[in-house]
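Ligand-bound model needed. flavin-adenine dinucleotide.
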Amino acid sequence: MEHIAILWFRNDLRLHDNEALVEATQKAKYVLPVYVFDERIFCGKTKFGFEKIGKFRTKFIIESVADLRENLRKKGSDLIIKIGKPEEEVFRLAKSIKSSWVFCNRERTQEEVDVQDNLEQNLWAIGQELRFARGKMLYHTADLPFPVSQVPDVFTNFRKEIESSSHIRPPFETPMVIPFPAFTEDRGVLPTLFTFDKEDVVDKHIENRKFKGGETNALMQLNAYFWETKNIENYKVTRNEMLGWDFSSKFSAWLSSGCISPKFIFCELQKYEKEVKKNDSTYWLYFELLWRDFFRLTGKKYGNRIFKKTGTRNINPGGSADIKIFDKWAKGNTGFPLIDANMRQLNQTGFMSNRGRQNVASFLVKDLKISWLMGAEYFESLLIDYDPCSNYGNWNYIAGVGNDPREDRYFNILTQSKRYDPQGDFIKYWLPELEKVPSQYIHFPEDMNVIDQSGSCVIIGDDYPFSMIQLKNCV
Ligand SMILES: Cc1cc2nc3c(=O)[nH]c(=O)nc-3n(C[C@H](O)[C@H](O)[C@H](O)COP(=O)(O)OP(=O)(O)OC[C@H]3O[C@@H](n4cnc5c(N)ncnc54)[C@H](O)[C@@H]3O)c2cc1C
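Prediction:
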């Protein structure tokens, strides 16, 4: 019998190092690749009423699916594109082409698990099977020095154990050909932002221009960051900056949609260390990728607890759901330039640096006393690189409900502003109304007297808001 396999693409929108693709081509004579835009996600809302996927990630995913289809076509294959519920659309296809199996990369967070469980149930009813592969992490779960239920809660312990006794497997080879079955049904058209009732993205900032979805762009970004610019050699020094493109790798958006595999990045990193240079910076990129594995494994260990207000530690952090206060934070109208600049960057591009994320999250939770879940959902909606485990895991940490060994971690935003944006270049880029404010006032422009304000062409209260609270520990 000439078996047909369906290859259901999810957050693994690539051909390189794709275990599900490799297994499908090895097992079946023909492979039918499918992607389903899940209408519940692309048209849905979060609990607090934000779009589940905002325009930035929607656009990025549409571009990624388009690129995947292109790359499949180059291999003599194609991509069937559907809009609907994956458990119904993939099932319907499986039934109509009488496939033998559906292959996919396994997801571990609840919404995704529900979809794959429902599909599996549907397939069982017609005597077919859902086969799972793994493709998210640097490390293979079977190679870890501890069972998932005993993943260390503290990152340093996790890292030390892994580094002393685990190895990273090499990436899978991309199959040379992906034989496509006889298929007479409609192959589906690529949706647009308009299909999901989302407004267009304005191409104004560097992040809008450079975050283009797809495996091809992911590999180009890797090539640029490593081989062309050699920016990787300074990563440890630059990674806490906030302005511009080159201070960090920007791999996150491509990693979250699976356009690039972490193992492939690691493999290139090793090559770079061997052929060009090995230093603290090259190690540090691996170190940060390890944080990603850590949060994913923490998500696996604690399940839905990462999404609950009480977090993995199961303690009540308090925090109100005051929408007026929250709105000022979300829109970047708090009167604190570091916070406002970062939030406006997020609202206009879908991206924010790690330094920015830590500060705005800490400010929301510790200074404004708002429930961290609102902030996490807002990030979920807007971040171009949203990843359930990395997002909720980091918010757990900042809210003090994760397993952070430093209890009550607090970011003093004025100190942080002075340290990481001494001249206010980042602030001035995102808050042009403060462009003429002298650097000694840029971190807290309210300190200017009326004469200084008019000399800087900004009247506090008119052109830029008064600070919404008095910060603890600073006057
Ligand atoms: C409140 C909060 C929410 C966050 N939400 C997300 C999210 O939804 N998706 C996401 O990918 N990252 C998230 N991060 C982590 C981090 O901010 C981003 O991964 C990073 O800023 C992306 O930029 P980059 O790719 O240039 O990172 P680089 O500094 O170049 O790091 C390389 C890669 O390492 C990983 N990484 C780095 N820092 C972290 C971290 N703290 N946790 C997990 N992985 C990390 C990412 O995959 C990143 O692409 C969050 C951090 C905070 C504080």
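Residues 136 and 261 are 7 Å apart (CA to CA).
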